[in-house]
UniProtKB/TrEMBL annotation:
<dbReference type="InterPro" id="IPR011650">
    <property type="entry name" value="Peptidase_M20_dimer"/>
</dbReference>
<dbReference type="InterPro" id="IPR017439">
    <property type="entry name" value="Amidohydrolase"/>
</dbReference>
<dbReference type="Pfam" id="PF07687">
    <property type="entry name" value="M20_dimer"/>
</dbReference>
<keyword id="KW-0479">Metal-binding</keyword>
<feature type="binding site">
    <location>
        <position position="368"/>
    </location>
    <ligand>
        <name>Mn(2+)</name>
    </ligand>
</feature>
<dbReference type="InterPro" id="IPR036264">
    <property type="entry name" value="Bact_exopeptidase_dim_dom"/>
</dbReference>
<dbReference type="GO" id="GO:0016787">
    <property type="term" value="F:hydrolase activity"/>
</dbReference>
<feature type="domain" description="Peptidase M20 dimerisation">
    <location>
        <begin position="185"/>
        <end position="278"/>
    </location>
</feature>
<dbReference type="InterPro" id="IPR002933">
    <property type="entry name" value="Peptidase_M20"/>
</dbReference>
<keyword id="KW-0464">Manganese</keyword>
<feature type="binding site">
    <location>
        <position position="103"/>
    </location>
    <ligand>
        <name>Mn(2+)</name>
    </ligand>
</feature>
<keyword id="KW-0378">Hydrolase</keyword>
<feature type="binding site">
    <location>
        <position position="101"/>
    </location>
    <ligand>
        <name>Mn(2+)</name>
    </ligand>
</feature>
<dbReference type="Pfam" id="PF01546">
    <property type="entry name" value="Peptidase_M20"/>
</dbReference>
<feature type="binding site">
    <location>
        <position position="136"/>
    </location>
    <ligand>
        <name>Mn(2+)</name>
    </ligand>
</feature>
<protein>
    <submittedName>
        <fullName>Amidohydrolase</fullName>
    </submittedName>
</protein>
<feature type="binding site">
    <location>
        <position position="162"/>
    </location>
    <ligand>
        <name>Mn(2+)</name>
    </ligand>
</feature>
Amino acid sequence: MKLVEPIIAFQSELQQIRRDLHAHPELCYEEVRTSDVVAAKLAEWGIPVVRGLGLTGVVGIIKNGTSERAIGLRADMDALPMQEINTFAHASRHPGKMHACGHDGHTAMLLGAAHHLAQQRDFDGTVYLIFQPAEEGGAGARRMIEDGLFERFPMEAVYGMHNWPGMPAGAFGVCEGPMMASSNEFHVTIRGKGAHAAQPHKGIDPIMVAVQIAQAWQTIITRNKSPLDTAVLSITQIHAGSATNVIPDDAKMVGTVRTFTTGVLDLVEQRMRVLAENIAAGFDAEVDFAFKRNYPPLVNHAKETQFAVEVMKAVAGADKVDSQVEPTMGAEDFAFFLQEKPGCYIFLGNGDGDHRDGGHGLGPCVLHNGSYDFNDNLLPIGASFWVRLAETALPLAR
């Protein structure tokens, strides 16, 4: 590891910041205290701050030299609506809210980079520090874009980073092209005709229609799309009925669809609708089909990914960089940024949970789990990566 020495010395303060944020989690678009902490730290270090993009977003601006070139570095700030089962000193103080995805660590790492870049300014150009709200389902990235992020802060590329449990602590992973899937949801209501369970011929059973639709939908994955394309269609809820001897009037199905390309998503959505409507019609039932596209696929740009890989190698060593990491079917709203600007999103290994202090829960240290905690040993690694990426992308004339 070739970390930035002043950042190593600053690790204890970064840990204090991170653990303070962990103890005070805020949900999407509620990150008032978090954005206050971020803005106060940036101002303390002499960094100009703009607030209000995406409601609770914060943008820090570090300029040096005469170059008009600029890049953006992004960290997400929001927590999840779930209960933490850890009992260590920095566990969540707000029941039903928890930093179970490491956004507290992402914020602290970018603050660490901000502190060093503001002090040393060993680059020529502008580094925009993007502290984004509402990644967890609120599409905060899109909201910041709609509020003029890229018009007010013109940048040639944007970069994001996420800790990744299960990957060795301090190792990096990335790949060109699709790295995370689109996230989409469907809500379907089958409208039949209620009847006595002993006289099903007098009704139209929406449950049987739902079963037929559910079975047919899986043929989209196995028979309609190319076997070389990736897609997951998961029915996660089926709700119908209220009594054992009553055929209900309607049945509801809810679930998600994930793909790596918009073309495959178009196919899946279209076939789902056609099958649902025609199967329902075949049983003399009606169907209400609603399909919501939440986050698009996250697609890394080739040039920026190759550039990021070289910086990773310079910081961590080539043996700790996987430039062909396996993509995940999870989703990330950084995808909206990559639709607007060239850039790259990377994984930083969080380990297997050995870093956790006493008082952690009995569950695994994986994302969106009540026993999760960010690995503070990553703070100088992630911050050093951000610094070296900025300095390499915007080099001073020597």
